[in-house]
Description:
The structure is a single chain. By secondary structure, the protein is of the alpha/beta class. It folds into 2 domains: about 5-115 and about 160-210 and about 275-300, P-loop containing nucleotide triphosphate hydrolases (Rossmann fold), CATH 3.40.50; about 220-260, no CATH class. The protein contains 15 helices and 7 strands. It has helices spanning about 15-25, 55-60, 65-70, 85-90, 90-100, 115-130, 135-140, 145-150, 165-175, 185-190, 190-200, 225-235, 235-245, 250-255, 280-290; strands at about 5-10, 30, 80-85, 105-110, 180, 220, 260. Helix 9 (about 165-175) runs parallel beside helix 15 (about 280-290) and helix 12 (about 225-235) packs across helix 13.
Amino acid sequence: MSASPDFLILGAGRAGTTWLTRVLDSHPQISMSVPKEPHYLAEGAHGIEYEGPGDALTNRAVVRVEAEWRALFACEPGSVAGEASVSTLSSPERSIEAIERLCPDARMVVMLRKPWERARSAHQLMRGQGREMLSFAAALDAEPERANANWNPFWLYRSQSEYARLLRPFVERFGDGVLVVEYEQAVASAEVVVPSMLEHLGVDVVELVDPGRVNSSVEPRLRFVRRAASRAYTSPRIRRLTRDHAPRSLRRALRWATSADPSGDDEPYPAGFVESFADELEALGDLLGDARPSWCRNEPSDVGPVVRR
């Protein structure tokens, strides 16, 4: 029988999936796919292509042939294989159909972060890539228009933080096959969180290496740098020339030299934005019960200081 994933990291995007992937990949019985995010279940299997700025490039990174996707999960006997496409959670109506057809017994892990922090972190990432030209507040206002214009769901910062809506179909269909992990707890106490994930995946509980902070957002310091980055990211010709003639180490150094870590940005959220998640937190708490994240048990105004990664 052709290979298929034993488990899926569903997301959420900007909620520690890269950290989680690296932790699990260090386990001797776990093999993570390369690439980390083939995006087959939600996009490739359905012929989905998006039309936002730079989306043509991300479209090309999607695995679109089932045999190529299955080949990602060949592993040694006694090991388990998985992938971590955040699009799986972003588009449940498509991904669940594909999961039922291709890997119905796969276990699932989802990392959830305070939804307002996840939304702003996604915005900061897109700014750092030079793709997002709007402020956070303006980008939130633009979400309906972007959705109608078929932009990648990653651009929809607010709606992709509506965990109850996105997660409910998975919980209702797969039940205990879905393990919910709180991002904040994982970052603070990996030694407590990781064993429960290993048990869920059916592998030996061993001590794993915490890779620390990974995949940080950066934002270009100067407007002209941001515009140049946007041109480079959205132009296949410029991107190809840069890739062919500039070493990766140099590209990375230039990116960091011309960028600022947004964790030092104390700009407040748009008025009422954090409070707007009150109903969402209640719905998520009802859905997950005792498995709900700790920030579901508090009012949004009582969640404490903003922590960005």
